[in-house]
Amino acid sequence: MSAACPNSTPTLPQALTATEVAERLKVSKRSVQRLVEEHAIPFKRLGPRILRFDPGEIAEWWSQGCPANGGQSVRRRRRRKVEVAATHQAAGKGAA
Known about the structure:
The chain is mainly α. The protein has one domain. Helix content is 45%, strand content 7%. The chain has 4 helices and 2 strands. The chain has helices at residues 18-25, 29-37, 55-63, 74-90; strands spanning 44-47, 50-52. A two-stranded antiparallel ribbon has the order 1-2. A hairpin with a 2-residue loop joins strand 1 and strand 2 (50-52). The termini are far apart.
């Protein structure tokens, strides 16, 4: 046995993948990905394509009624911003 390897390994929190979260919430993996894109679900990004979810944070988020980021999705806010810009431009209020 090497001196670098202790007899007992430290206990790390069990992180969930997007697929595991989807299974627990009974939704599609794509639905979980949308929640991540909208920052409406607690997650940790470990790399450009690696996401992990803390089971405790997910349970708390669920018990609070799945609160979204301000109650409005990022996609909806962007769509509204584009609509307002188009209206202003049509009225001659936009930059030339």
